[in-house]
Design brief:
Elements (H helix, E strand, L loop, with lengths): L1 H18 L23 H7 L4 H6 L2 H10 L12 H11 L1 H8 L3 H11 L11 H18 L2 H4 L4 H20 L1 H22 L8 H13 L7 H14 L1
Helix pairs in contact: 1-7, 1-10, 5-6, 7-10, 8-11, 10-11, 10-13, 11-13
Length: about 240
């Protein structure tokens, strides 16, 4: 019990520390799609300009590195492949900031804190569809990262429950705003939940047909049955309550 209270307290402290970060802590890329040269530069030059200099990369606080990751224009490559996981693998290969982030010992804890600060309804209803899309895509970037074994393996028992509970909360809010997030937004929430549950032995059953369906979802992040999301959320709620 003392361990659980201590872990929850540390997460609360990290939330307060994150709130104290200011705009000066944000990494500014020298190139973004809004600049005139974006269309004229070859992909190799863009990739070079979107890397974080090594001297800054190693000293960058993890929470700032997380923000730099979701701000990187190349994150949109995740949607250019058959599965988001394939796209994530490509971004990891191309972007040194993501590779560094996944090596940080505090990445999991800081990601939970960061994810808690993200507000599903934090967009302006008057934004253009493209701007809303960029906002909702950030949840995909974080939830896909939270699904990776390098992150899940860092979690202790309390952090695992905190993360799954937050994923459930985000999922429920996305359901209310499904016109903005679509089924894709729900899938990626469930994708992170499924991988976390699977790591803790709380996803698969002895039924071969069910296991095959869930295994496919774990590999692709795409639904093959309409009731798959409900099954995963039911298992997640049971895990958090036990």
């Amino acid at each position: 019990m003392k361990f659980i209270k201590t872990s929850a307290f540390l997460i609360a402290i990290l939330l307060m520390q994150y709130a104290m970060l200011n705009a000066q802590d944000k990494y500014e890329y020298p190139l973004n799609p809004g600049m005139p040269e974006w269309k004229s530069l070859p992909i190799e030059e863009k990739n070079k300009m979107l890397q974080i200099p090594e001297d800054k990369l190693k000293s960058m606080p993890t929470e700032v590195l997380i923000q730099a990751y979701i701000d990187n224009p190349f994150c949109s490559l995740m949607f250019a492949y058959n599965t988001t996981q394939d796209g994530f693998n490509r971004v990891s290969k191309e972007f040194n900031g993501l590779r560094e982030l996944m090596k940080r010992n505090d990445a999991a804890t800081k990601l939970i804190v960061f994810y808690k600060t993200m507000q599903v309804d934090g967009y302006d209803v008057n934004w253009e569809p493209s701007e809303k899309g960029r906002f909702t895509f950030r949840f995909v970037y974080i939830e896909t990262l939270l699904s990776q074994p390098e992150i899940i393996n860092q979690l202790n028992a309390t952090e695992t429950k905190v993360l799954i509970n937050e994923l459930i909360n985000k999922y429920n809010k996305k359901v209310e705003l499904v016109s903005e997030y679509s089924i894709v937004g729900l899938e990626h929430c469930a994708y992170a939940i499924a991988h976390t549950l699977n790591k803790n032995g709380k996803l698969m059953t002895q039924e071969a047909s069910v296991d095959e369906t869930l295994q496919s979802f774990l590999e692709t992040g795409h639904l093959s049955k309409s009731n798959m999301l409900d099954q995963i959320l039911q298992k997640a709620r049971a895990f958090v309550q036990n």
